[in-house]
Amino acid sequence: MIMYKWVTLILAGGQSRRMGTSKTFLPRKDQLMIEHLVSISQEVSGHTIIISHENDVLKLNKLFIQNQNIAILQDEQRFKGFGPLAGLYTGMKHINAEWYFVLANDMPNINISYLKGLQQCTLSHPQSDIIIPIHNGRMHPLAGAYRNQEKGLYEYLNKGNKKMTDFIDSVSTYKILEQEWGEWTNQNKLFFNMNTPSDLSNWEKNIDK
Ligand SMILES: Nc1nc2c(ncn2[C@@H]2O[C@H](COP(=O)(O)OP(=O)(O)OP(=O)(O)O)[C@@H](O)[C@H]2O)c(=O)[nH]1
């Protein structure tokens, strides 16, 4: 089995209830959100896995048909409805890697400078299981790096647990403070995420096109 050093898991398996339309295909400058995330992920990782929703699989397959380094999956049946951790588990089960960058499909400001910084962090913190950023005192677990922990995640989910924060608290987590990630990128709204149509239009009004 190929063992990658880094793989990216793009979480796109949510219901997008508040947005009312799939966040995966929202416009982002001259691309779609998913195209942006895939293109930055491919600069730091050997493979990208999109953990998608059943309604989007066909469209994603068409969009990335030419790209051998992308897999499009759905959450493992057993853990459907378990939220983001089900996506992590599915990706870890599918491809063996040392580290997984995890990206939500609704953070339009995540950029390559940030991902490169996160990648360096995996090299400088080899003893950590999870590396996640903090902004204004809040953790952003869907913009972090996770060491392969397929077995631990299986056990956690199989007991009926779904909560991401409890899982994070149960392992060795390195928190990247603002001073640190602020040196990698000057994007201060890095972890902004779009949940509603008004988030999208506010973001579009404020981006530097
Ligand atoms: N693979 C997978 N990803 C999920 C799941 N639930 C949420 N996500 C992803 O986690 C991120 C944050 O999701 P939320 O904004 O909390 O939820 P959402 O389902 O996208 O949107 P709402 O239905 O409005 O809550 C997004 O990237 C989602 O696609 C899930 O069950 N499986």
TrEMBL record:
Cofactors, names only: Mg(2+)
The keyword Cytoplasm is annotated on this UniProt entry: yes
Keyword Acetylation carried by entry: no
Major localisation: cytoplasm
Pfam families assigned to the protein according to its UniProt record, in alphabetical order: NTP_transf_3
Catalytic reaction equation(s): Mo-molybdopterin + GTP + H(+) = Mo-molybdopterin guanine dinucleotide + diphosphate
GO cellular component, one term: cytoplasm
Protein name: Probable molybdenum cofactor guanylyltransferase
Taxonomic source organism: Chengkuizengella marina
